[in-house]
């Protein structure tokens, strides 16, 4: 049983954190207000009403966590009805609640939705559209895969491992298996990494979390490869999360990556490692005024200067 993950889910829901929003939002323009902390004090009937009337599926998914934590099985009949709505994401959200409240129908519904690859009408809620009927199916299945990964029960593991063979959903499955600590998935993750190079970083990150040395080796190879910059960026971030000093040479090499976002990620990773041997490379990077095109408004130089100051400050604190 891995229900301890719900404590993390509930914390994310009540802080309205950007990760949770980006996980479920399909359109940045639809980023309405997240669930307020006051939801924790609501009655189950009030929460159920908010669940039914949530403007967007990602908001409803947040409330789903709260309903599961509340543990009120009296809402099961109404939740079961909501698993038959036309909106697939909302259908999956209801199935998630069913499962969380101990109703086996929830898992069965989620697995069925994952296996349904048929094209379907584009959801009007997703205002910009996502490329037509086939992409809508992918979007719905992607949402469902995230929910399955958040369930955290042993019964979900076989389906997640099966999804490692699905080119569209293997990255979600890999991340979930890594977070859940499923060591039985290691060999399947290696196969996935070879089968889908565009998702190799996801498999490698999961392997690293599971303590498999092949994961860090793969991540290091990706960082210095000619794969797309988004893949190199994710691999660099994963090396930072690993906290392994053995990867310091690769991160120093990444300071010369062609893409500014990868260089910024390398600087931040070296900052996190906090090793003074990185200072010469960081001083060179401090002259790089490039502005990364994605995410935070910063420069390579600003990040490098901050890293230098942080490492030097740590060294001073270690002096007798």
Summary?
It holds the Pfam family HEAT_PBS. The protein is an all-alpha fold and 320 residues long. The protein is 63% helix and 0% strand.
Commentary on this structure:
Helices cover 63% and strands 0% of the residues. It is mainly α and 320 residues long. Helix 5 (76-82) packs antiparallel against helix 6 and helix 8 (133-151) packs parallel to helix 10 (170-180). 40% of the residues are buried. Residues 1-35 have low confidence and may be disordered. One of its GO terms (molecular function) is lyase activity. Keywords: Lyase.
What's the helix and strand layout?
Layout: H1 5-15, H2 18-24, H3 44-53, H4 57-70, H5 76-82, H6 88-100, H7 105-115, H8 133-151, H9 157-163, H10 170-180, H11 186-195, H12 200-209, H13 213-223, H14 229-242, H15 248-254, H16 260-273, H17 279-285, H18 300-318
Helix pairs in contact: 1-4, 2-4, 3-4, 4-6, 5-6, 6-7, 6-8, 7-8, 8-10, 9-10, 10-12, 11-12, 12-13, 12-14, 13-14, 14-16, 15-16, 16-18, 17-18
């Amino acid at each position: 049983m891995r229900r301890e993950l719900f404590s993390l889910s509930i914390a994310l829901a009540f802080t309205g954190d950007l990760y949770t929003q980006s996980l479920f939002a399909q359109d940045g323009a639809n980023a309405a207000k997240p669930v307020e902390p006051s939801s924790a004090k609501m009655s189950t009937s009030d929460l159920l009403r908010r669940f039914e009337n949530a403007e967007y599926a990602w908001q409803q998914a947040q409330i789903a966590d709260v309903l599961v934590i509340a543990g009120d099985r009296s809402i099961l009949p109404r939740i079961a009805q909501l698993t038959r709505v036309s909106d697939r994401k909302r259908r999956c959200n209801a199935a998630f609640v069913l499962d969380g409240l101990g109703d086996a129908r929830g898992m069965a519904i989620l697995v069925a939705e994952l296996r349904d690859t048929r094209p379907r009408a584009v959801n009007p809620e997703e205002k910009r559209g996502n490329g037509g009927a086939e992409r809508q199916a992918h979007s719905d299945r992607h949402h469902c895969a995230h929910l399955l990964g958040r369930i955290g029960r042993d019964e979900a593991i076989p389906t997640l491992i099966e999804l490692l063979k699905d080119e569209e959903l293997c990255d979600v499955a890999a991340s979930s298996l890594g977070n859940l600590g499923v060591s039985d998935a290691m060999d399947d993750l290696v196969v996935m990494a070879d089968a889908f190079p565009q998702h190799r970083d996801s498999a490698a990150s999961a392997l690293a979390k599971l303590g498999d040395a092949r994961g860090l080796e793969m991540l290091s190879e990706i960082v210095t490869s000619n794969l797309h910059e988004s893949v190199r960026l994710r691999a660099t971030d994963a090396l930072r999360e690993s906290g392994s000093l053995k990867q310091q040479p690769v991160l120093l090499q990444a300071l010369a990556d062609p893409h500014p976002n990868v260089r910024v990620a390398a600087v931040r990773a070296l900052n996190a490692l906090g090793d003074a041997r990185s200072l010469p490379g960081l001083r060179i990077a401090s002259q790089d005024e490039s502005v990364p095109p994605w995410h935070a408004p910063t420069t390579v130089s600003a990040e490098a200067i901050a890293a230098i100051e942080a490492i030097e400050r740590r060294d001073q604190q270690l002096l007798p």
